Amino acid sequence: MSSVFRRARAAVLAAALLCIPALAPSPAAADPVLPPSGGVLYVTNAVSGDVSSLAIGPGGTLSPLGTPVSTGGCTLEGTGPGCTPRGIALTPNGATAYVVNSDSSTLAVFRVGVRGALQPHPLLVETGKEPWGATVAPNGRTLYVTDTADRTISAYRIGADGTPSRFAVFRTTSNHPK
Question: I need a surface site. Which of 2, 26, 120, 149 has the fewest CB within 10 A?
């Protein structure tokens, strides 16, 4: 094999390796979730402080995927911090869900099961005052939470396991961003 041919082959290989990072999945959680064929609908239940996971069936029919799961702070009587879950956001691969709890100013971090249901016992992360909404950036690396009482947006880096860590807080020009 000539040295010119070896250098050309090495250059092609190097160019191919440069493309690999663009094909890598987002860092949030290990494997993608395979929900039911029609998908899953998640509903926050403000009074009971939990989230329902519903399979979307043929023609848009809904069926529960187990029982609702607590967002981490509601008592059996339906009172206490954490009883007002609001917004919910998922990582692009569907492996992690984030639910904001307005009353307790926390973010419940759920792992998503293989059928799409949220797993019980979420990790709780502190947010700004009275969080309302949440969204994950399309690349799956950043989570944004609106904090209505602070008039801010909190930004979180999403770790490889889906765990968020706040890295910035941005002031908004609006009262009560949602």
Answer: 2
